[in-house]
Write a structure and sequence with these properties.
alpha/beta, globular, 48% helix
C-alpha cells in the first residue's frame, strides 16, 4: 500500500495484472493436469482466462438446475468455450446432495460454515476422476472486490477499468 500510494490508477492496474498472472503461474508450476473450478462468476472467470493463457487447463462446474436463480451452467459453458477450455459438469440433484453430504462434511474443516462446501467436494471428486492434479479456485475474489465489502473503496471505477483490460476471451 505504501509503495503504491502515489501511483496512478494505470500503474496500480499494471501491478495488479502482473500479480494475478504471477500468482496463477506459480500455482500452475510443477503440476500435472490442472483444472479450474469454474462457477461462472467473476473470480473463477478471471482465473480461468489467466490459467488458460499460461497452460493447458480444463474446467469443472457444479450445476444446480433446480435453483434457477443460482445455476450458472450456461455462463460457465460460454466462458469455457470462449477460452477453449474443456468443461466437465457435475449436475447436483437432491439425491446426490443427500448421498454426498456426510462425505463432504467429513472431508472439510468448516463444512457447514461455507456455502460451497458440497460444490467444492463434488468438483474435487470430478477433477480426481479426470486425473487432475491441481484444481484452482478463485473463491471470495469477487466478494473481496465487491462494493458491499468492508474494503476502503471510495468508488468502483478502478475495478471497472481493470475488468475492461482483461483479455476479450473472458467473455465479459
Amino acid at each position: 500500500h505504501t509503495r503504491l500510494r502515489g501511483s496512478s490508477v494505470e500503474q496500480v492496474l499494471d501491478e495488479l495484472d502482473a500479480l494475478l498472472i504471477r500468482s496463477v503461474g506459480e500455482n500452475l508450476r510443477g503440476t500435472g493436469q490442472c483444472a479450474v473450478a469454474l462457477s461462472g462468476g467473476v473470480d473463477s472467470t478471471v482465473l480461468c482466462a489467466l490459467a488458460r493463457r499460461q497452460a493447458s487447463v480444463q474446467a469443472v462446474h457444479v450445476s444446480v438446475p433446480q435453483g434457477k436463480g443460482y445455476d450458472e451452467r450456461r455462463t460457465a459453458e460460454r466462458i469455457a468455450k470462449l477460452n477453449g477450455v474443456p468443461l466437465s459438469v457435475v449436475t447436483m440433484s437432491g439425491e446426490l446432495y443427500r448421498n454426498t453430504l456426510v462425505q463432504a462434511t467429513a472431508a472439510n474443516e468448516m463444512p457447514l460454515w461455507h456455502l460451497q462446501n458440497l460444490g467444492y467436494y463434488l468438483a474435487s471428486q470430478r477433477a480426481a476422476e479426470l486425473g487432475i492434479d491441481t484444481l484452482l479456485c478463485g473463491d471470495t475474489t469477487g466478494a473481496m472486490l465487491s462494493p458491499a465489502s468492508q474494503l476502503p473503496w471510495t468508488h468502483l471505477s478502478p475495478l471497472l477499468n481493470m475488468l475492461r483490460r482483461l483479455p476479450p476471451a473472458i467473455g465479459a
